[in-house]
Amino acid sequence: MNEDGTVLPLTSAPDAIELRHLRAFVAVAGELNFSRAAQRLFLSQPALSRQIRTLERLIGCDLFRRSTQRVELTLAGEALLARARPLLTELDDAITTTRSVGGELDGRMARLWAPWTDASGEAGNLETVRAATEELHGRFAPPDGIATAPVLAGGTSALRLTPATLQDGPPASILYVHGGGHVAGSAFGYRHLAGAIAAAARTPALVVDYRLAPEHPYPAGLHDLLAAYGWLLDSGVAPDRITIAGDSSGAGLVMSLLLALGAHDLPRPAGAALLCPWVDLTGKTQRPPSESPILFRPEVARRYAEAYLNGHPEDDPLVDPLRTNLSGLPPLLIHAASGDSVQPEAHLLAEHARACGVDVTTAVHPVATHTFHLFWSFLPEAASAVDQIGKFVRDRTATTDRTAEA
Fold this sequence. Notes:
alpha/beta; Arc Repressor Mutant, subunit A; Rossmann fold; eight-stranded mixed β-sheet; two-stranded antiparallel ribbon; 12 helices; 10 strands; 46% helix; 13% strand
């Protein structure tokens, strides 16, 4: 450093410095906590510490001051952070743009969806659809450090996913409701997505194996979720420490659960996250034309809706959130994909909820597939979306903590 405080240029960086070292450094610098940074990167804490020590050795100076109580940046660390952050941001933007132009990620997602897309076109062959659904999810693993345990939640089978690092405060939980068109999907299959959300939120997740149509049409699945929610309450988790989340048809079930809790005068949770929600079982919402091979096609949606309702009225308030009074619902986070056929339903739900006085946050991600969150392990937009959900869960808890202190 010069006498006037400016940083003198050094020689070229050692070739051994890798991007993973810089990403590890920026994560620790942002959190000033090795445990939280490790969760954010889906690494173990020892592995993250080794990367930071390697980077310090290669650079030749300490980047952090560590004590048993706190982690602080050194002056050298502050200088590196100011340059590393924009460098990584520009690199990520360049890679995302290149992949988008080349269609590599769209092609990969299309290949992953292909067995399910093919199976869903075979009317009535639900076993093939269910097998294809599990095959899709079986290609992904939960993030490192997630402990998985089977539980019986109010008489319903479920999996509890617990990240290695938990948020402070009283017990909290995510209640995750998996998608699958009301006819497919499982808690085991969804371990990877629910586990990633749990890690991002630093909160355990309970994934419920609710009963599926057509063997168990509405309201069987809803009753299972009510039982699981009651089990969480009985287990000592306060309602304002519970966040409910679900994707696609699971997001529709989340809305049914929120409305059913009000109908039964039961306490509602702190918030709910709806990922590419499929909430219009009537099929009346106009969907934009698209040639994308990885969409939830209207004819498939209609067939699954009929199996789920089994003659039950489509205008039942508990299954029709687009035309039901939503007053009193907790804050909602609604994610949509720009190329998804159900994106209009997400917008209609957000507008309707806001008109009913509900606090709604929306985000439309530039992805050409339904339930893109499934691809969090390789799709940058999905990884970003999972981080947003984690922050939403943490913010709900922080709000309740401040309220309790007041």
